[in-house]
Amino acid sequence: MKWTQIPLGPLQTNCYVVSDGQNCIIFDPGEEPQKIIQYIQTKKLKPLAILLTHAHFDHIGALDAIRDYYEIPAYIHEKEAKWLLDPALNGSQKWFPENPMRMKPADHILVNEQELTIGGFTFEVFETPGHSPGSVSYYAKEERLLFSGDVLFQGSVGRTDLIGGSESVLLKSIDTKLLTLSDDTIVFPGHGPVTTILDEKNTNPFLR
């Protein structure tokens, strides 16, 4: 499994394109859809789906553009399904009142933790609330790749002062769902550089 990180928009939100050399999955297309399309066309990939870690505005800004261009489905957790349609919930109304985001409903709603298989890709879906109530992390077990959204960063954790956020819930999610993974698991956060579970155990000041 190959991957590339594409920081997008004013907050440099990480979009990830994960491929097997032919097909690909897109994580969190937050902004600048042309950058995503250009990369996919350059690599001659066929997108199969869009997986959302959560529905904050900076992670969904290019959702409809990418979904419509490739005619592929989008997945989100049930607790944030309505956020795609509501600028007050996804935060765009507060931060960008001149351009509130109202996306189309997701094509697939994730209910509870599960194993998700799309084409040749399989991910374990972990419910990891705290940054937002419907935050999920996607784990490719065989390759030990974790797409954590805004739950866990290099040297930091997600903010908890937004709608539905909770510091205690966030830290519990990290402790019980993420830090139990193997130390060599590569963590792909929603912002900033890639890290590993071992590095965060050893150096992340929020986890001590």
TrEMBL record:
One of its GO terms (molecular function) is metal ion binding. Signal peptide: none annotated. SUPFAM superfamilies: Metallo-hydrolase/oxidoreductase. Residues 12-191 form the Metallo-beta-lactamase domain. Gene3D superfamilies: Ribonuclease Z/Hydroxyacylglutathione hydrolase-like. Keywords: Hydrolase, Metal-binding, Zinc. CDD domains: metallo-hydrolase-like_MBL-fold (cd06262). Its cofactor is Zn(2+). Pfam families: Lactamase_B (PF00753). This is MBL fold metallo-hydrolase. It comes from Peribacillus butanolivorans.
